Protein: Biotin carboxyl carrier protein of acetyl-CoA carboxylase
Organism: Limibacillus halophilus
Amino acid sequence: MAEFDLNDDLIRRLAGLLEETGLTELEYEADGRRIRVSRGSSVSQVSVAPAAAAPSVAPAPSAGDAIPAGAITAPMVGTVYTAPSPGTPDFVSVGDKVREGQTVLIIEAMKVMNQIAAPRGGTVTQILIDDGQPVEFGEPLIVIE
């Protein structure tokens, strides 16, 4: 097997994401190589392995699947929730005006509830997901114009 050149900057950024998000494990894959950074009780560890050929979870985006302009995309893999708790009104609805920093969704990842804030003010023109739906990194969630 050819030697895998470790990118110290990438590993440091991934470890920083663990601290920032409170996650205990993060995996990154590119060019057929996979890096998994996980946090134990007090020490972070990095393991590098060749990426296994895994079945695709979602079809590759085609030209017709372009991310809409103004879309907020999922910053992580998880389950999206449109309301703060079951039985309460959604954070936002189509037509609502939002301000920068306002919580518009929650994504649960590894039992951590991550608030997703509007990156800019505007009007919600589309909600592209359903409450309780699993989402992938980079998947469009809401369009704000």
